């Protein structure tokens, strides 16, 4: 990619999981000063309201089967906007470098000679369980956590996730984007020896006022999803720490 002459800089800003109170001070400052905001589908309206009212706003969101822009188009857009604007904020749900394609975007920006900076955000895999009263680590239940994407199991190409290894890699497993492939994932984990009685929590719209939880086991969760109509977007938490949900759920923060 040819190096571009740039007026400005692109900031890959993590917006957090939804609750505007979890946006970092650095992210808030950049939004208030932004000339352009290129945002994802799951960015909450309250966070978008923080942006400079004079900023150009571009929806680059991706939801299953519905893409406002292809990833390559988004990358090119960021390069072009940096040539004519001083502060370009690429606003991404959660953290840009945790299953957010931030590394891909940074790679293309660096290759084009565009100044770029990442502003970390609170990832949903940590925040959503916390708001559900589920500590990912606990001295009596879990001393390790594995974060993994469930999207890799889509039938269009060979899966990259080694579920056989993941099954016993840690006491707690957190799965992003796994709802659509839940039957396959549960089958893989139990086939690898993870007990069907292992607790699992699905957390939808984590940290938002309408957050929902569905608690079951590896052996029953697929049927429970069918019965309740539970849908994405959601995080899955697997492990004995899920049993703390009943005790701690009433301690969740107040989301305004």
Write up this protein:
With 256 residues, this protein is of the alpha/beta class. The protein has nine helices and twelve strands. It has two domains: 114 residues, Cobalt-precorrin-4 Transmethylase, domain 1; 127 residues, Methyltransferase, Cobalt-precorrin-4 Transmethylase, Domain 2, CATH 3.30.950.10. Strands 3-2-6-1-7 form a five-stranded parallel β-sheet, with helices on both faces. Helix 3 crosses helix 4. The longest helix is centred in the N-terminal third of the chain and has 12 residues.
Write the layout of secondary structure elements.
Blueprint: E1 9-14, H1 25-33, E2 36-39, H2 45-48, E3 56-59, E4 62-63, E5 66-67, H3 71-82, E6 87-92, H4 102-111, E7 116-119, H5 124-131, E8 145-149, H6 163-166, E9 172-176, H7 182-191, E10 199-204, E11 212-217, H8 221-228, E12 234-238, H9 245-248
Parallel strand pairs: 1-6, 1-7, 2-3, 2-6, 8-9
Antiparallel strand pairs: 4-5, 9-12, 10-11, 10-12
Helix pairs in contact: 3-4
CATH H-level superfamily title of the largest domain: Tetrapyrrole methylase, C-terminal domain
Instruction: Please count the beta strands (DSSP E, at least 2 residues each).
Output: 12
Count of DSSP H/I helices: 9
CATH C-level of the largest domain: Alpha Beta
CATH architecture of the largest domain: 2-Layer Sandwich
Over the alpha carbons, how many angstroms does the gyration radius reach? 19 Å
Beta percentage is 15-25%
Helix coverage percent: 25-40%
- The secondary-structure element order is EHEHEEEHEHEHEHEHEEHEH
Poorly predicted spans: 153-157
- Taking strands numbered 1, 2, ... along the chain, how are they ordered across the largest sheet? 3-2-6-1-7
């Amino acid at each position: 990619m040819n190096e571009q002459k740039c007026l400005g800089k692109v900031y890959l800003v993590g917006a957090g999981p939804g609750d505007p109170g979890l946006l970092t001070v650095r992210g808030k400052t950049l939004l208030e000063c932004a000339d352009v905001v290129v945002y994802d589908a799951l960015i909450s309206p309250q966070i978008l309201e923080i942006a400079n009212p004079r900023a150009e706003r571009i929806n680059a969101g991706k939801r299953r089967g519905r893409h406002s822009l292809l990833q390559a188009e988004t990358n090119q857009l960021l390069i072009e906007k940096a040539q004519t604007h001083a502060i370009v904020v690429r606003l991404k749900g959660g953290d840009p470098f945790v299953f957010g394609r931030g590394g891909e975007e940074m790679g293309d920006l660096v290759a084009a000679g565009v100044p770029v900076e990442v502003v970390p955000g609170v990832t949903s895999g940590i925040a959503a369980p916390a708001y559900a009263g589920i500590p990912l680590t606990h001295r009596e239940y879990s001393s390790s956590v594995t974060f993994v994407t469930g999207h890799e199991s889509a039938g269009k190409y060979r899966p990259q996730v080694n579920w056989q290894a993941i099954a016993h890699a840690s006491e707690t497993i957190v799965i992003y984007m796994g709802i659509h492939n839940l039957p396959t994932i549960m089958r893989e984990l139990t086939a690898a020896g993870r007990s069907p009685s292992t607790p699992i929590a699905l957390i939808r719209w984590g940290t938002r006022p309408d957050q929902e939880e569905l608690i079951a086991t590896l052996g029953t969760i697929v049927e429970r999803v069918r019965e309740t109509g539970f849908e994405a977007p959601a995080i899955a938490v697997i492990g004995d720490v899920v049993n703390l949900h009943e005790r701690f759920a009433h301690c969740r923060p107040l989301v305004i």
